[in-house]
Design a protein that fits this description.
CATH topology: Rossmann fold
Shape: globular
Number of strands: 8
Structural class: alpha/beta
Distance between the termini: 33 Å
Strand order of the largest sheet: 1-2-4-3-5-6-7-8
Number of helices: 8
Helix content: 25-40%
Largest sheet: 8 strands, mixed
CATH superfamily: Alpha/Beta hydrolase fold, catalytic domain
Order of helices and strands: EEEHEHHEHEHHEHEH
Mean pLDDT: 97
CATH architecture: 3-Layer(aba) Sandwich
CATH class: Alpha Beta
Radius of gyration: 16 Å
Amino acid sequence: MDALDGWTRSEHTYDGTTHPTHRRGSGPGVVVIHEMPGLTAGVIRFGEELVEAGYTVVLPHLFGPAGREFSNADVAKVFPRICVSREFTTLARGETTPVAGWLRSLARDLHADVGGPGVGALGMCFTGGFALAMMVEDTTVAPVLCQPSVPFAVGAARSADLNLSPADAEVVRRRAAGGCQVLGIRYASDPLVGTRFDTLEGLVGDAFLRVDLDGRGHSTVTEQRSQVAVDAVLDFFAERLS
């Protein structure tokens, strides 16, 4: 059985870039951005939990395979391609990932279609910070960062970096001051997240809702799924999107 059975496949194009999308459900919109190595079965299952909770979920497919269970073999194949892709930044500091413009456009279109107070956005691991970059778009009102790991935590400066340009960081700060909260979830002993949660606290203060899970896990809502993490996401979306 295909993991994407029941999902409607489409495409979204912005500024000359096209990626496949998969959509399911009804209610307020949520964009779930998959982790490395691709749109895994675990990410799809998490999307289905959000559908069951009453949301219109869109899963963009940005890279890697779709519908397969997570495997280190897939990571080894996909990782080198991602590192040289012009759509992403992996080591640069003080830069917003280029794919953010595409994701913001996707959020605008989803909100225009389903209405409501705005759209939720959730990124994880490699794409964790992408949800924060989407907050620059006014229609994204519920950004969730699950174990954001880019730029790769090599050295203190990169470990603290939010994968945002100074201009975008200022927009995030202003939106947070205006009432837009940010949810961040990580395992407390996960070295891949670095110290960027501390940076985010410094940027937006009490608008950052931080969840530090016990242990050395990594994928908070998929491969090392924590019910505490999933419940925090569901509560956050219910409050912000209802």
